[in-house]
Design brief:
The protein has 159 residues and is an alpha+beta fold. The protein has four helices and four strands. Helix content is 43%, strand content 30%. 18% of the residues are buried.
């Protein structure tokens, strides 16, 4: 038992000396991401994108923001496939988000654009059609948040 304890202590000292960083440690870029306040437009898709971005960035509500992220979202829905009665069988939802990251210190802002396309099935029942459309919007918002987070990590790594 003592030998195992001594080996564990020696191994941990060796790892600490080599600059090992645990997989879930908070890197410098990650801590900056946590201090980005997100602003989106006041509609359902904007709200969903803000929720997804705050989750993806792990926003720390208790700390003063270092950056302000503003987004402008445009969506376009196009019908795909047609039934005999000329109604759509699927829809393609294309969502384009233009974002701007502005430091609260007054430094130059960084901006970018991301576009995501999702599809969803058209349903005959009204509730099912609304649920399918909202699910498509939710998936598009989640993917946009992931892409914007990657863009922000790249932009902040150069600072």
């Amino acid at each position: 038992m003592r030998v195992a304890t001594v080996l564990a202590v020696l191994l941990s000292l060796g790892l600490a000396a080599c600059g090992f960083t645990p997989m879930y440690a908070e890197p410098a870029t990650g801590s900056a991401l946590r201090r980005i306040a997100v602003e989106t437009q006041d509609n359902r898709l904007g709200y969903r994108l803000r929720e997804q971005l705050e989750d993806a960035l792990a926003w720390d509500r208790g700390a003063a923001p270092l950056y302000r992220l503003t987004t402008q979202v445009e969506q376009n829905r196009r019908s795909l496939g047609r039934r005999i009665d000329d109604t759509a069988t699927r829809y393609e939802l294309t969502v384009k988000a233009t974002w701007t990251l502005t430091p609260t210190s007054g430094a130059a802002p960084v901006s970018g654009v991301e576009t995501v396309t999702t599809t969803y099935a058209a349903a005959d029942q009204p509730y099912a059609a609304i649920a399918a459309q909202q699910d498509g919007e939710e998936r598009a918002a989640a993917e946009l948040a992931r892409l914007i987070r990657l863009d922000l990590m790249q932009a902040l790594s150069g600072r």
